[in-house]
């Protein structure tokens, strides 16, 4: 029968594994989006008068992930949001705006913030 110390270690170890998995999924998603759109630039689909950006899919996905407690979906959805947040805030509208210095620095800074807040963010799912 495991002692109290062993149980605590297992719980702490599991938290660390979950945090690492969350960050890896998050970063791979951002890198994947950036590489895909760099090689094959495309605008979001348009539904009526609204252009649907990937941050919008991220909001929907994050909401579902929080309700259903699905960490991988939450990591992917948060990456979709963070990847495009600076672009939207600067009023970007072109492929060049998405790869501008300010957009890239913003995405890196927001990704660093996600890393710092990973424990709290995982508390949502």
UniProtKB/TrEMBL annotation:
It comes from the Bacteria. The chain crosses the membrane at residues 20-43, 55-79, 99-117. Keywords: Membrane, Transmembrane, Transmembrane helix. The keyword Transmembrane helix applies. This is Uncharacterized protein. It comes from Candidatus Doudnabacteria bacterium Gr01-1014_77.
């Amino acid at each position: 029968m495991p002692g109290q110390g062993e149980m605590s270690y297992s719980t702490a170890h599991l938290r660390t594994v979950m945090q690492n998995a969350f960050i890896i999924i998050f970063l791979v998603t951002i890198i994947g989006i950036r590489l895909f759109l760099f090689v094959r630039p495309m605008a979001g689909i348009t539904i009526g008068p609204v252009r649907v950006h990937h941050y919008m899919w991220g909001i929907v996905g994050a909401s579902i992930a929080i309700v259903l407690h699905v960490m991988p979906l939450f990591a992917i959805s948060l990456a979709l949001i963070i990847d495009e947040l600076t672009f939207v805030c600067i009023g970007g509208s072109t492929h060049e705006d998405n790869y501008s210095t300010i957009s890239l620095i913003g995405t890196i800074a927001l990704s660093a913030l996600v890393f710092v807040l990973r424990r709290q963010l995982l508390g949502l799912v």
